[in-house]
Amino acid sequence: MIEAALSRCVARFMPGATGVTGAAMLSGGASQETWRFDIVHPDGAIGAILRRAPKGYGAAPGRAAGLDNEAALMQLAYEAGVPSPRVLHQLTPDDELGTGFIMQRIEGETIARKILRDADFADVRPHLARQLGGIAAGIHGVARDKLPTSLREMSATKEIAELTREYRSFGWPRPVFELALRWLAEHDPGPPAEVTLVHGDFRHGNLIIGRDGVRAVLDWELAHTGDPMEDLGWICVNSWRFGEIDKPVGGFGAREDLFAGYEAAGRKVDPARVMFWEVMGTLRWGVMCCGMMQRFREAPDHSMERAMIGRRASETEIDLLRLLVPRGAA
């Protein structure tokens, strides 16, 4: 059924296209549907991805930027030279496919454990941290006057307040989280020197990587405007290292390499603010894990995936203690 609707859709927006083949839903993605398919075209098959809201899904909740904004940001990033899929079409009511967009498909690996361990990526791994620094700089350099006007703006102060409210709503006291919230409030760095576009989820799983390096940045669902150091702190959160704890940037590189790539692209790093956002990101992931456990307890389906993610809150407590009370500290 979706293949027929996609065939009608692509025939309308792409000259020469006659239909689609091989439509299949991909795994992954907690809030949106992702479909892989090929567009049939006289010049050869064109690999494509449909990203859309599930049936019955309403307006973008909470932090979500919304699919229209995602498409706009992805295209802006593509035009700015950031590795990003080209957006081929934003869905309209006539397409009868719901809300979403169709983008170019880029081949590569997104699974962190393969990227960090497989021999195929051995040559490129030492260069990824610096490359990601340059990519982050490109994201932060997108002109603000081109950004969607409905994009939310976040600050450290607002983020602390939101995390505090969400954490307390669980009624589940965790002393380490209390320590982290107090530390964040005491070290709030205030407004950044420059407010920029922030990807908001710049990490493994949202990066397509090949033997030649990073091929695309995906999933702009949490994009907003704010402190650019947030993205640099988030990629350094220990949860995205997958056991390679001595390589802070995604388990494959050093902060110094990330910072060098960022500054080589003409932007300035503030290491103290990056540290602040690494603590914030670690706590945020811990609170998100608690939220998953809460939903596992309360939802009728009792998803095992939610329970598995929920139990990782304890890992973030260890990570926070390593950051805030390192061994040997007074």
What does this structure look like?
The protein is of the alpha+beta class and 330 residues long. The chain is built from eleven helices and nine strands. The protein folds into two domains: 19-104, Phosphorylase Kinase, domain 1, CATH 3.30.200; 112-324, Aminoglycoside 3'-phosphotransferase, Chain: A, domain 2 (Alpha-Beta Complex). The strands form three sheets. Strands 1-2-3-5-4 form a five-stranded antiparallel sheet. A two-stranded antiparallel ribbon has the order 6-9. Helix 5 (156-169) runs parallel beside helix 9, helix 7 (229-235) crosses helix 9 (271-298) and helix 9 (271-298) packs antiparallel against helix 11. The protein starts with a helix and ends in a 6-residue tail after the last helix. The mean pLDDT is 92. Strand 1 and strand 2 form a beta hairpin. Helix content is 42%, strand content 14%. The protein has helices spanning 2-13, 67-79, 112-117, 125-140, 156-169, 175-186, 229-235, 255-264, 271-298, 304-310, 313-324; strands spanning 19-25, 33-40, 46-52, 87-90, 100-104, 196-198, 207-210, 213-217, 224-226.
